[in-house]
Structures are given as structure tokens and as C-alpha cells.
Amino acid sequence: MALFDSVLNSVTSKFGLSSDKAGGLLALLLGMIADPAKGGFGGFIDRFKGAGLGSTANSWITTGDNEPLTEGQVEQVLGKDNIADAAAKAGAETGTATSAFASMIPHVVDTLTPDAQIPDEASLMSRIGGFLSGIGGAAAAAVAGTLGVAGAFAAGAGEKVAGAVGAASGAVGSVGGRVSDTADRFRENVDTGGASSILRWLIPLLLLGLVIALGFWFCGRGTAPTANVNVNANRTNANANRTNVNVRTNANATSNATANTAEAARTLSEVTLANGTKLQAYPGGIEDQMVKFIQSDEYKGATNETLKEKWFNFDDLNFVFGKTELTPESKRQLDNITAILKAYPDVKIKIGGYTDKKGDDAANLKLSDSRAKAVQTALKAAGVGGQVPEAEGYGEKFAKVEESASDDARKVDRKTAVRLIK
């Protein structure tokens, strides 16, 4: 743990935290930084850039003095709910945790970037492993069964992880040695299947679980769940050799939640276009709505002015967290919109991007505009650019849910949509 000793010593002396509570907050912070569901280290830094703190974040990575963070900036980037949740897990006051995170983040990022570059996944996990490597005995027992905790944390769902932690020490037994040995044994039991294997996700999830388990150990919980992993994350099943892991990606982790379609129990159905093309789409989804509207008398009699009030929300199009890069899973819906435009060559559309009220107004506007234009660019590349002449981001202009609301409540305002134009 020597890698972060100076950080822990500073936090305990500045804010009157016990070493257990300070260590718990540090472990939880490392979990946030390494969380693959939010883009890992790069995604963590991008959250600061999106809040207009790019130069501040860069100062922690490059050589020179680290620019400080204020408590308000930490709340803006991490979210008050997330900080309160971390504080509860560490047994600290929310205000104290906010101040501690503001103090720790610049130094932790600096420590994780000794070569003044954003670390790749392997380097990041190796450096975090240095923090974990001194743990043995009771702490290792707490770590051994924590993959379920990793899943809950990586899904970014704000779950009450502590409630899922069972009395594992008796079931697991005494576990000696280093935490890194646990990861090594896991690697040996996974069929990698090549460079693109699911292993590159499973290993970070395991190590992330170790970080979170360490947080609970510091906080005096000392137990870990024996439950199977069921991470609600991206429709991807990973069957590792001798290890059964079911990984799914939460669509909201890609930061483009939709406003009107529940994820659960949805099944694709067939939508037939005027030219006979058949699409696989969700009943009541954007494709179904657009086709019915295009074929309706309402559309035939509509003017461009009345069409401004008729938007259709994408329900299966998402972006990499904090970025303008579309996820691979978005291709199906983009292909469907392309097919609709080709079937109705006289139809033209405008793309709109929206965010919730959280974060900097200007940064939200810029992000939403860039995302709207990213969709426009993808459709142009598919050969229907002439039918997509407009794309605009509105940021939080039309957001209705207050910034202080939970992330789940605010997701209705985060969307990408389409309207027809004449």
C-alpha cells in the first residue's frame, strides 16, 4: 500500500478520518477510476473534461503541479448521490467524503500516471494491484468471493452493495497470500480465445471487485458475497472455461438513455416498409413509430412548423460513456433508419441530441451537438446523407428533471431523437 501512503496520510490528517475510513474512500475511488462500464481511466478523465475541467485534469497527468479541485467540482463530476453512497459505505459523513475526494483525486491520478500518459488497462490494473498486494488473511478472505460485488459496481447502478455482502469468511475459509495470486488463478482458468476475448473484460471486473472488497474491509465489514455474477450490462454472454460468468451491459452506462421504452421483456418484431424491406425492430419503437407516421394522413397534411413538435426517440442507440462514439450495438438501429429513408426517398429528417441538467451547461450543449452530428455522419456514410440535412444538439434546454434528482430519474432527459422535416 506504499504507493498511496502519502495520500492516505494527508487525508487522515486534514479531515480527521480514521485510517480505515480513509482507506475505504480511497479503495472506492480506485473503483470509480477503474470502472470499465464507464470507460475505465480514460472515461473517468473524460468526465472532468466534459465538465469544463480538461486543463485541470491534464495537470494531474502531465509533469508539473497538480491543479486543485473544489468540493463543488467534485460534486459536479461524480454526482452527489454517488458521493453520498460512497460515504455511507466508508462510514464517513458525505461532506467529509466530498472534501476527501477533492483532495485525493489529483494525487491519485498523478500517482497512476508516472509516465505522464493515460495508462492502458493492463498498466492501470498493475498499479492498482500494487495497492492491493499487501493484503492477506481476513482481508483476502473478504476478497475471494467478491466478483458479484464487482458486477454490481461496474454496472454503475448505484446499488446498495453492502446489503448484498454475505458472511463469506466462513464459507470461503482462510485465504492467505496476495490478492494478485487470486487474479493469476482466475487467468489460468479462463480460455482467452485470442486478443479480442472476453478475458480483457473479465480480468478488469475481477480486479475491480478486489478494489471494492478492499473498501468494505477497510470499513470493517470483512465479508463478501458468494453469489454468482449477474452484471446488468450489454447483452453479452461470456462463458469462460471452468468459470461461468454472465455479463450484460446496462444501456445507461453508455450515457444515452431513452425516454419511452422499457428494456425488460422487449422482443424484436417485423416491420415491413413500402418497398417490401423487412426490419427487425421493437414494437412501438422508433422504426415502428416513424413508418406509421410517414404512412399517415397526419404527415401528408403536416407543415414543417407542425413537424417541429413531433420527435421520435431512438430506443437502441447509445454512445460510449462521455464520448461521441457510437457503440457497436447501435448499428442495427442505424441500419433500420437507413432502410426507412431508402424506402421513402422523399422523406428528410433532422437529428436532435439532448442531455439532462447535470453538469456544465456549455459542456452539455457541446456534447449533445457532437452526438447528434455523429448520428448524421453515420447515416451519410450509409448513403442517405441527402435525407439528413440537419443535426443539432439542445443540451439541457428541454430537460425537465431537476439536477438534484437521482441518475435514474434524470435518464428520461438523455436522448437522441429524430423528426421529419419538409
What are the key terms here?
20 helices, 49% helix, Arc Repressor Mutant, subunit A, alpha/beta, four-stranded mixed sheet, 9 strands, three-stranded mixed sheet
Describe the protein in words.
By secondary structure, the chain is an alpha/beta fold. It has two domains: 2-253, YidB-like (Arc Repressor Mutant, subunit A, Orthogonal Bundle); 269-421, OmpA-like domain (60s Ribosomal Protein L30, Chain: A, 2-Layer Sandwich), CATH 3.30.1330. 49% of the residues lie in helices and 11% in strands. It contains 20 helices and nine strands. The strands form three sheets. Strands 6-9-7-8 form a four-stranded mixed β-sheet. The model is unreliable at 133-205 and 221-265 (pLDDT under 50).
**Segments where pLDDT lies below 50 for 5+ residues?**
133-205, 221-265
CATH class of the largest domain: Mainly Alpha
Query: What is the helix fraction of residues, given as a range?
Result: 40-55%
Distance between the termini: 64 Å
The best one-word shape is elongated
- Assigned CATH superfamily of the largest domain: YidB-like
Number of helices: 20
What is the mean predicted local confidence, pLDDT? 74
Query: How do the strands of the widest beta sheet line up side by side?
Result: 6-9-7-8
The major pleated sheet works out as: 4 strands, mixed
CATH architecture of the largest domain: Orthogonal Bundle
Q: Care to count the β-strands?
A: 9
Kindly identify the CATH topology of the largest domain. Answer: Arc Repressor Mutant, subunit A
The fraction of residues assigned to DSSP E strands is 5-15%
